[in-house]
Design goal:
3-stranded antiparallel sheet; extended
Length: 130
Amino acid sequence: MAKVEWNDAVKTVSGALVKINKKSQHAADQKMVLATHRTAATTSTCCSRLYLRGLSAVSRSTLPKAKELAARSRFTEVSAMVRTRSKDLMQIAADQAAFLAQKDTAGGKKTMKAYYWHICGEEYDQQHGN
C-alpha cells in the first residue's frame, strides 16, 4: 500500500490533483489523481488517501421518458429566456423594482437570478399549458 506524506505547510488536500482531459483522443487512457488529507478523530496516523480514477464511460440502460425529455426542454427554454430577459435594458429597472418588492415577503426569491428563473418559468408554463 502506498503512503502519502504531505509537507507540514499542507494541512488539507481535497480534490483532483490531476484531471482527465475529456476532449483528448486519449481520454480513456488517462487517470485522475484524487487526494484527501484529514485530521483523524482517533489516534490513527493514517489520515491521507490517494485515489486513481479512470474515465468512466457510463451509458444509460434505458431511454429517457417523455417526462424527462419535457423537463430538459423546459430547462433549455427557460434558461434562454432568463439570459435574454436579464440583458434586456428596457426591462431591467422594472424587474429590479419588482424583485425588491417581493424579496422580503414569504416565499420571495432572495437573488435576482432566482427571481428571473421563477418569472420565466411561470411564463413558460403559461405558454405551454402546464
